[in-house]
Design brief:
Helices cover about 80% and strands about 0% of the residues. By secondary structure, the chain is an all-alpha fold. About 40% of the residues are buried.
Length: about 160
């Protein structure tokens, strides 16, 4: 099978499985998010694929999620800044992500930004469901781990299907 077709089949079939898994009651109850997993899955390939892509995705997206959580918490403490509280907190978080990239395990800045955006999205979408910055962290990291694993597995399966 040609390389693109092998990847197409692998990703397509595994996307069905991933979407189904995220609809299971335990993951729904734990607030795991399929969209966060798909971001991590894409990040796996964007971050180099293979083991290094998985590693970069897990470390950088998790770091970004932690920074994002901290930024949301900080924004709540900067009330004196009024409408500038959230922008200032986001700017500080973005700066921290850039500084963090000096550590080799955190060097893929876009992956860290994906993690930041993933937790921010869950916090903003989940306010009515009692999601807090702190309670959003575990399901975000769990979704990242699952998505990174799907990225790795989809690459391995595509490699096995590819005509050598």
């Amino acid at each position: 099978m040609q390389k693109l077709l092998a990847l197409t089949v692998s990703v397509g079939v595994l996307a069905v499985l991933a979407t189904w898994i995220f609809g299971l009651d335990p993951l729904v109850a734990a607030k795991f998010q399929v969209w966060q997993a798909f971001i991590a899955w894409g990040c796996h390939f964007h971050s180099g694929g293979k083991f290094i892509g998985t590693r970069n995705t897990i470390f950088c997206m998790t770091f970004g999620a932690i920074v994002g959580m901290a930024a949301v918490l900080l924004a709540g403490q900067l009330g004196a800044l009024g409408s500038l509280a959230a922008p200032v907190a986001v700017g500080l978080g973005a700066a921290l992500i850039c500084l963090g990239s000096s550590v080799s395990l955190l060097a893929v800045i876009p992956a860290s930004v994906y993690g930041f955006a993933s937790i921010a999205g869950l916090i903003l979408l989940g306010k009515g469901d009692g999601v807090t910055p702190v309670s959003a962290l575990a399901p975000t990291i769990g979704s990242i781990l699952i998505g990174a694993a799907f990225g790795y597995v989809s690459e391995v399966v595509a490699g096995a299907l590819e005509k050598k």
